[in-house]
Amino acid sequence: MNTSVNIAGVTLKNPVTVASGTFGSGMEYGEFVDLSLLGAVTTKGVANIPWPGNPTPRIAETYGGMINAIGLQNPGIDTFCERDIPFLKTKDTKIIVNVCGKSEQDYIDVVERLASEPVDLLEINVSCPNVKEGGIAFGQDPKALFSITEKIKKVAKQPVIMKLSPNVTDITVMARAAVDAGADALSLINTLTGMKIDIERRCFAVANKTGGMSGPAVKPVAVRMVYQVANAVKVPIIGMGGIMTAEDAIEFIMAGATAVSVGTANFHNPYATLEVVKGIEEFMTKHGIEDISEIRGCVK
């Protein structure tokens, strides 16, 4: 039975990774999860300088999920390279580094710094607000997405995965813009913009007013978008959005995803990723599937 998948020339032993921001850089979950059993570990967003993140409260539970407005708090690329990469290199898994920034130059600084580091893939978070363009996310304007993808590809030494925002009218327009600019792969979806109000305190549940909604409630939207993108472009897709079980993951693969990311599930079940890996193997055994590619994009 072959569960391995190929993302832009990088072979993952199985199609399961973690969604950026839900797993740290693996250290926090190391006592629960043997990271070597995962296809890859996707790190928390890394910027060129340390980011303090948003004011608290920054997380609120919602029906079928959660809203977060962490604000991509991170220690910056220097600490990441000195502390997190050496830790991850002790594990038999691939390393996907999520990169964030507030201007094109911010992203390029991080990508250039990572060029000489032993990491396998770069996932570019284009849901960050472009401060020089009035705060609209890079991933909400196809021209901005094309521009940043093209510039990152010119300096990147590792394959580039563009992580698409679902907060757009037509996800395929964004997917095509990224691929036309040279993206090696895509990941989707990032969180949906949401809001929660505390009616007793008569205030917003998170200090930022809005936040990113994730969890099972977004899965049908995510599966639909992965299906649309898989039928619009010819690059590998990492599908994510509300995956709690192997059944959820298999839905994404049947919709056309090459790999999947488990995110919010990690917060209430630190073993979720391993259960998804095992469940995919059990499904393949039960149905006599020799190679996971047999079910990729099998629904048309």
How would you describe this structure to a colleague?
The chain has 300 residues and is α/β, with parallel strands linked by helices. The chain has one domain: TIM Barrel. 30% of the residues lie in helices and 20% in strands. The protein contains 8 helices and 16 strands. Strands 3-16-15-10-9-8-7-4 form an 8-stranded parallel β-sheet. Strands 5-6-14-11 form a 4-stranded antiparallel β-sheet, with no helix packed on it. Strands 1-2 form a two-stranded antiparallel ribbon. α3 packs parallel to α4. The model has no long low-confidence stretch (mean pLDDT 96).
Shape: globular
**How big a fraction of the residues is strand?**
15-25%
Tally of DSSP helical segments: 8
Class of secondary structure makeup:
alpha/beta
The CATH topology is: TIM Barrel
Helix and strand pattern: EEEEEEHEHEHEHEEEEEHEHEHH
CATH architecture: Alpha-Beta Barrel
- What portion of residues is helical? 25-40%
CATH superfamily heading: Aldolase class I
Biggest beta sheet summary: 8 strands, parallel
Spatial strand sequence of the major β-sheet: 3-16-15-10-9-8-7-4
**Number of β-strand runs:** 16
Q: What structural keywords apply?
A:
8 helices, 300 residues, globular, eight-stranded parallel β-sheet, TIM Barrel, 20% strand, four-stranded antiparallel β-sheet, alpha/beta, 16 strands
